[in-house]
Amino acid sequence: MQTVLLPSGARIAYTDQGSQPKIPVLLVHGHPFDRSMWSPQAEYAARNGHRVVVPDLRGYGESTGPEVSGLDSFAEDLIGLADHLGLSRFVLGGLSMGGQIVMQTVRDHPERIAALLLADTFAEPETAEGKTARNAAADRVLAEGMAGYADELLPKMVSPATLRENPEVTAHVRKMMHDAPAAGAAAALRARANRPDYRDSLQQVSVPTLVVVGSEDEFTPVADAQLLHQLVPGSELAVLDGAGHLPNLERVAEFNDVFGRFLDHAEER
């Protein structure tokens, strides 16, 4: 693990592995997780010739700094980290909130993106009901901590089959959520409540794009992924059977196979 102090005042912790004969990859975790969420994909892509950078978002994991005011704060941190590491263009991937941060980054810095991975995420702005719910959740975790909130989320984060059959993944997901700093999680919830509509900017995307979703995802169902697939010209869509909101952990081999073939395709462009 390494850290860098960015101009924003954020100190970002990150892993940087693999060589760089192929296009570099930057992966963005979701809420309320940390960079370990992407470990299977980082190891896989690094073995296959990619330099892979995976940060903890500001306020999560081992990253610290001023509370974010919007998803654009996360996007600027990603660009600041890429600048520090000398990554002029890179594959950018994210899951759930991480996918929305990816969309914000593409909107603000399209020239930096060589290809996109959008996993279990959606592009629409928050509804009035959703804003109320996210702000209430932020108030709750600040008052009570993460434990109760995390335990309630767990059955929706992974599929019933994962809960029954994969205690290792279930324990990893639970630990990430329990360990998430409450202040960082609350700030991100409020930022996400105020996110913009990304649909118009996605229609302007001209780089290879892979959309992935678990067939059992309750938070971002297959219909959300299908909309992303329709919005992004020439994108690919992969639905991973039996996975919930975290197919990269629940169906590692299938996810890595789809992602690896996509990276090969992006390398050819």
TrEMBL record:
Molecular functions per Gene Ontology: hydrolase activity
InterPro entries xrefs: AB_hydrolase_1, AB_hydrolase_fold, AB_hydrolase_sf, Epox_hydrolase-like
Keyword Hydrolase: yes
Domain of life: Bacteria
SUPFAM superfamilies linked: alpha/beta-Hydrolases
Keywords: Hydrolase
Protein name in the entry: Alpha/beta fold hydrolase
Entries under Pfam families matching the protein: Abhydrolase_1
Taxonomic classification: Bacteria, Bacillati, Actinomycetota, Actinomycetes, Pseudonocardiales
Domain AB hydrolase-1: from-to ranges: 24-251
PANTHER family: MONOACYLGLYCEROL LIPASE
